[in-house]
Amino acid sequence: MRIVFMGTPEFAVPSLRMLLEKGYNVAAVVTQPDRPKGRKRELTPPPVKAFALEHGLPVLQPEKMRAAEAVAAMAEYAPDLIVTAAYGQILPRGVLDLPRLGCVNVHGSLLPRYRGGAPIQRSVIDGEPSTGVTLMYMAEGLDTGDMIARVEVPITDEDTSGTMFEKLSVAGAKLLEEWLPRLEAGTAPRVKQDDALATYAPNLTRDDERLHWEHTSRQVFNRVRGLNPMAGAFTHLNGEVFKVWGCKAPAASDAELPTEWLASQPGTVLDSGPFGIRVRTGDGSIVLTEVQPAGKKMLSAAEYARGARLAPGTVLG
């Protein structure tokens, strides 16, 4: 069975590694083009490309998978099966029709919920108690193909999008390994999705990264950890971007504010000290633990408050 693997970020690497470790014939790897990264904007290969080159695999990096020349380049590898994991582009009919065994995708949610490009981040932001991985056949729509199998993974208060990416990437590789023999034999099941239950997880925008202090403490907490370690949540301090990378999980007592704090508007700094920076929210308060002022590195909120002498009554927003 000749397999063409398509993936881009670190999430996809465990699935590709599993294919090689289990002796499958990976004929080629398709990934996104190198992109500028960091302050110096240096061209950087995607993690899947770096891994593929380390193992001597041919790599294709079409800018647009829909281009005729991209489809023709893939066809030269005559795949029996195409496996994708967070590739980043919707596959055209010309690619979907190439392999005799079909195209399967390792998707980071429990479909039909969270179809789209940011299912893991939005699951955390939405405060879901769990998410998972769905192994599915690919179709021309956005994550609409028939399902093969799913596995559920809990989301705890200690999790961020970063930890969930790691957990789900491992779970996805195991799920793919479990079902590959039946995919090769052509006996894997096809379970249609219930479109009435579908929800969507579009790629995050700048507005998604903004903290709204009038939200509940739990909503603020979920947004902060859902954006860590990717873009980071942000607010403004003295007109400049002020990123928040970590905060404590809100407790029931966080809503029981002293009388002098009750009149404060959401976003007001109530107190700061070795514990962090306490900020008013829509239903109480939350303690920030890791922050990053404009033009500076990330540091503990306690360290920042000590150095900046962040006064109670300062308003973030």
TrEMBL record:
Source domain of life: Bacteria
PROSITE patterns in UniProt: GART
Domain Formyl transferase N-terminal: 1-176
Binding site for (6S)-5,6,7,8-tetrahydrofolate: 109-112
Reactions performed catalytically: L-methionyl-tRNA(fMet) + (6R)-10-formyltetrahydrofolate = N-formyl-L-methionyl-tRNA(fMet) + (6S)-5,6,7,8-tetrahydrofolate + H(+)
Coiled coil stretches, renumbered: none
Keywords, comma-separated and alphabetical: Protein biosynthesis, Transferase
Enzyme Commission code(s) on record: 2.1.2.9
GO molecular function, one term: methionyl-tRNA formyltransferase activity
One Pfam family it belongs to: Formyl_trans_N
Domain Formyl transferase C-terminal: 204-308
Single GO cellular component term: cytosol
PANTHER family reported for this sequence: METHIONYL-TRNA FORMYLTRANSFERASE, METHIONYL-TRNA FORMYLTRANSFERASE, MITOCHONDRIAL
Record's function text: Attaches a formyl group to the free amino group of methionyl-tRNA(fMet). The formyl group appears to play a dual role in the initiator identity of N-formylmethionyl-tRNA by promoting its recognition by IF2 and preventing the misappropriation of this tRNA by the elongation apparatus.
Family: Belongs to the Fmt family.
Name of this protein: Methionyl-tRNA formyltransferase
Native organism: Cohnella lubricantis
